[in-house]
Amino acid sequence: MAVTKICGIETEYSIIQRGVVEQNPVHASSILVDAYGQRYRIADDTGVAPAVHWDFQDEMPGNDARGFAPMGSMPPIVETHLVNAVLTNGARFYVDHAHPELSTPECANALEVTKYDKSGEIILQRAMEYANQNLPEGEEIIVYKDNSDGKGNSYGCHENYLMDRLTPFGEIISHATAHFISRQIFTGSGKVGCEIPGIDSELIPFQITQRADFFDDEVGLETTLTRPILNTRDEPHADPKKYRRLHVICGDANMSETATFLKVGSTAILLSMVEDSYMHKNYFFENPVAAMRNVSHDLSLKAPLLLKDGSSITALEIQWEIFASAKQYIGDGGDEFTGGEVAHQIIATWERILTGLESEPKKLRKEIDWVAKKILLDQYAEKKKISFFDPRIRSLAVQYHDIRQEQNIVGKLGMKNIISNEEVEYGVTDPPSGTRAYFRGICLKKWPESIVSANWDSIVFKLDDNNLKRVPILEPAKGSKSDIDRLVSEAITPRDLINALETVV
């Protein structure tokens, strides 16, 4: 039986520091995250809990869902020494390798994920502002919400979905692979050129997704070097006997709210269908990696993808097949696990977008990133009378992902918003109400000086006798506002809260 699809997004932002002789993205990222934390430590309405560290104790990125953990797997050594900010909205803002990264709080549905993803953009905007105030004259830190810099570097946008541990991982592979390959037609952010070794970039002037060039395998544990379409990292950040967390690394970072909503929403429904054994048709590709790239390179959406049985199918046809099953599933009660009323919004959006892609993609210029970007670049090339391979085209393509308000092309293009400005602003400092993120966020707001560390599934409190107490939160759907708001409001100290929680349990 399907479990409620608690979900979230981790976005890696690309970063540059203007005015320096040599780029040091680790240093620049540290300045950025630290500036945000330092600014809010002295603010009245805090967005960052002061002196609260991220707890890496339970993190084991080497655990493989196929049933093994490589020797030496342990919490990442480098990350633990870099800057981490724990946010009162339940999110995490940190330096990951050589870039800043923001993980949304756990969200109850795709619409909520979209909201906190946009709130993340506001956080990055303010982080840039605060960091640049402290830099020497002539220097400036800029981040972009993109996935490729055209120089071989790729920045991920990873999705996470709570799943039933009892669902065989092979079943997930069998059904999710086809979805991940074909969903690019509405999740892609668009990319100028190609970065596949041995392929002349001029043969592919524009493609649908920024990420397809960087995938080399169908299934695997890696996330940086040999990227797989289906990632097997097994860190549930929840009760491991009951749950797994499917870590999805093959998606683009989207500027379009509609694209983010549909990316997460369609995938949540697909995974719930897998758990409920609702999927009755498999698509096994002759070469999944080649299929992924072929979809990205085909702007007509008509390229046949070769299956192992010798037949072929297009990405659009696969999506229509998955959609038909999803529509029936939601009608049969699957909305219980996929966001309730939000699930019906996903179905309506999914059908409308597929219809538009099938009939006239240009009509989706205000909702689908790759369509909007292609039209923008074509118009610019025509206006300037330049080739599509002119450096100015690549520069404009990158600028599409500039989140600074004064440079925000997406806003000027009139992209459709499905989240209000008020909701986005709320999400900057306040947690979602329907998951354990609420417990984390509200405790960080009320007792920031009494919390030593936090992570996804626990908080460590420093009590009035200086003893430390770890409070586990292994159920992602528990710790919601309805669960604990009264207990938190009545508690004067963390000890009061802990005593009350122990009484309830």
- Please identify, by name, the CATH architecture of the largest domain: 2-Layer Sandwich
Biggest sheet descriptor? 6 strands, antiparallel
Radius of gyration: 22 Å
Percentage of β-strand residues: 15-25%
Total domain count = 2
Structural class: alpha+beta
Detail the poorly predicted runs.
70-81
Biggest sheet strand line-up: 4-5-6-1-8-13
Number of strands: 18
What's the helix and strand layout?
Blueprint (H helix, E strand, L loop, with lengths): L6 E6 L1 E5 L6 H17 L11 E2 L29 E3 L5 E5 L2 E5 L6 H24 L6 E5 L12 E8 L4 H14 L1 H4 L3 E2 L13 E2 L7 E6 L6 E5 L11 E9 L5 H19 L12 H10 L7 E2 L5 E2 L1 H17 L9 H19 L9 H16 L6 H9 L9 H5 L7 H9 L7 H10 L4 E5 L2 E5 L5 E5 L8 H10 L3 H11 L1
Parallel strand pairs: 3-16, 11-12
Antiparallel strand pairs: 1-6, 1-8, 2-7, 4-5, 5-6, 8-13, 9-10, 14-15, 16-17, 17-18
